[in-house]
Write a structure and sequence with these properties.
- The protein has 2 domains: 65 residues, Winged helix-like DNA-binding domain superfamily/Winged helix DNA-binding domain (Arc Repressor Mutant, subunit A, Orthogonal Bundle), CATH 1.10.10.10; 120 residues, 3-Layer(aba) Sandwich (Rossmann fold), CATH 3.40.50.720.
- The radius of gyration is 21 Å and the shape is elongated.
- It is 46% helix and 19% strand.
- It is of the alpha/beta class and 221 residues long.
- The strands form 3 sheets. The protein has a 7-stranded mixed β-sheet, sandwiched between helices. The chain has a two-stranded antiparallel sheet with strand order 1-2. Strands 9-10 form a two-stranded antiparallel ribbon.
- The N terminus is likely disordered.
- The protein contains 6 helices and 11 strands.
Length: 221
Amino acid sequence: MNKLLYTVQIMNNQQKEDTATLEILQAIESNEDFTQRHLADQLGVALGLANSYLKRCVHKGLVKIHQAPANRYLYYLTPKGFAEKSRLTTEYLSSSFNFYRSASDSLTDIYTYCMGKEWRKVLFCGVSELAEIASIRAQEHGITHVGTWDPEESKIFFLDRPVWKSISNVENYDACLLTSLNNAGGMFESLCAQVDGERILTPSILGISRTKTNHKAVSKF
């Protein structure tokens, strides 16, 4: 199954359900030995929640279930399921490209601001797809990505740069760029408690509404 490459940060309930539905339909189409446990692993959710999503697909007429020997079940996409998969894929790609463009525009503004401040060394805060886009844009603007701070990340390297669990271990950076997608609000609050607010850069695509911290303005784009 093809992995979904870019994830829009702030999704409403319908968007979350659509994303789960698309992954279910893709998984069933590409795997003849599909199981609910396989689905749970694919979605990264508990088995019960995966079962709930699957039942919704069956109820909507997108998926059919046939019992096989040895108490196994076979899952098939219905014609309606194939049509829905095509529709959701188109919507997803459109959303992904819009996310990439919006993120790129915001990051271009941020790096232009950094150049004006002569901030050449930027610490990313959060391992994510947004950080990957930020890395590409950084190279285009002569900005050095010194590494990534992410307390929840198990990797020790990301984008060929070190990953730190504690920001106090990071040396020699000019500004912090918020790149977390899964926990942008929490990472932002943690940054506010540890870093001069003037040097916290927050892409507008993350929807961080707070504009002041530590009695100094947070740079928002």
